[in-house]
Design a protein that fits this description.
Blueprint lengths: L2 H10 L2 H13 L14 E3 L1 H18 L4 H4 L19 E10 L5 E9 L7 H12 L6 E2 L7 H12 L8 E5 L8 H11 L3 E3 L4 E3 L2 E6 L2 E5 L1 E4 L3 H4 L4 H7 L9 E3 L4 H4 L16 E3 L13 E5 L14 H6 L6 E5 L15 E9 L8 E10 L16 E3 L1 E4 L1
Parallel strand pairs: 1-18, 5-6, 5-10, 10-11
Antiparallel strand pairs: 2-3, 2-15, 4-18, 7-8, 8-9, 12-14, 13-14, 15-16, 16-17
Length: 398
């Protein structure tokens, strides 16, 4: 997007340099990066970054208002509500598409958000290796608000570990060593020193949770939760039965609490009014379908990785929905073919990380990731056999 930097990067790019970059990126935990890594980062000028952060702060205004818990009460499916919810989400991720408006101008548009962690630690490693193998200007950084690697990881430790010993804080996931994002789990273990624990390893005694390591039974006092409950409910009956342990009265603290995955989600979008947040309406509140239905996207409230989204909506799609209270209609945005590559330009989606430390009145923007695509949608399944697509991150002008 910063044309001079893009031109310089592309002209100096070689496949040999990219392979050297990949070799070091994979060296930390060989065989665990189970997704395509793009050939390039994204360079974002300060004015465009300010627009994204303006939208984020506007949404934070809504999240921090006194009635937020009340207006999102129905966001959490009854069958998966978890006890002992706190009054804020430790983490929020905001996904923006780089889009083109009716005037042909580039602008960010919020695609989705989640009160849930993402690749917080892998991205630190990704940035470190990128900076080593490619020429990144000194006045650009992957971090926001003056953060650097040390300050970022320190804040992450303070939020996740707090005042506990690392062995009493677990990264909890369902079959973690089989997940596509497992590289982030291993990087979290590297940087924070907390163990990775599978749901199947948990032991419940009264209200206390334990796991075993090297013949020792260790109490769990804080849970860095990476389980997506929608995913859990798609597993075998045996795993779902094991998952009931999470609904029990537990003495362990959640970081973040699972209910916030639903409170800060597509469910929140209809409450947001901002130029860079597309109009979103609960399907069951629509009295009359828009005349330009082709300019909307139909999305289920409860889905994972874009599953169930209808891009080219027709009235029949609406008619087929049997639970309209679980769906939204969102104004369609036009992704811009904005990242110049050796063949055709790529689209880009940017995820902004917000961290919320206990005791603070608001979360703060810290870091990012990006995904490049040449398909109709962002995601691996839409980019088979393409280059200059996949996982990346942004360098923001300071």
């Amino acid at each position: 997007m910063v044309s001079a930097l893009r031109k310089c990067f592309n002209e100096s790019f070689t496949k040999e340099k990219y392979q050297d970059f990949l070799e070091e990126l994979h060296s930390k935990h060989p065989g665990t990066i189970d997704f395509r890594v793009a050939e390039t980062p994204v360079f974002i000028a300060k004015d465009f970054a300010d627009k994204m952060l303006s939208a984020c702060e506007s949404i934070v205004d809504v999240i921090t208002q006194p009635n937020f818990l009340a207006i999102t009460k129905k966001a959490i499916p009854e069958e998966i509500k978890v006890l002992n919810e706190n009054n804020f989400s430790h983490f929020i991720a905001f996904d923006f598409g780089i889009c083109e408006n009716d005037k042909g101008e580039l602008e960010p548009q919020l695609i989705e958000m989640q009160g849930f962690p993402t690749l917080f630690c892998y991205q630190v490693w990704h940035d470190e290796v990128t900076s080593k193998h490619f020429n990144i200007p000194d006045n650009y950084s992957a971090y926001l608000n003056g953060f650097n690697k040390e300050a970022y990881l320190q804040l992450l430790k303070e939020i996740i570990i707090k005042d506990q010993q690392p062995e009493n804080v677990i990264l909890l996931e369902l079959l973690p060593h089989e997940q596509k994002t497992r590289i982030d789990f291993y990087c979290t273990e590297d940087y924070l020193g907390i163990p990775i624990v599978c749901l199947t390893e948990l032991i419940l005694e009264g209200k206390k949770l334990f796991y075993e390591r090297d013949g020792r039974k260790i109490e769990v006092k804080r849970i860095y939760n990476r389980i997506i409950f929608d995913d859990l409910h798609a597993q075998s009956a045996e795993l779902q039965e094991k998952g009931k342990i999470l609904s029990a009265e537990l003495e362990a603290e959640w970081v973040p609490h699972p209910n916030w995955f639903y409170r800060i989600s597509k469910y929140t979008l209809p409450f947001i009014q901002h130029p860079y947040v597309p109009q979103t309406i609960f399907l069951d509140e629509i009295k009359e379908l828009p005349a330009d239905l082709e300019n909307y996207v139909l999305k289920p409230l409860f889905s994972f990785a874009g599953q169930g989204v209808v891009i080219d909506v027709c009235p029949e799609d609406i008619t087929r929905v049997t639970d309209p209270h679980n769906w939204v209609l969102q104004r369609k945005v036009k992704y811009a073919d904005v990242i110049e590559t050796p063949d055709i330009p790529a689209k880009a989606e940017i995820r902004i990380f917000y961290f919320w430390k206990e005791g603070e009145t608001r979360p703060v923007g810290t870091f990012n990731l990006a995904r490049l695509s040449k398909g109709k949608m962002i995601g691996v399944r839409y980019n088979h056999d393409k280059e200059w697509v996949g996982a990346s991150h942004v360098y923001f002008e300071k």
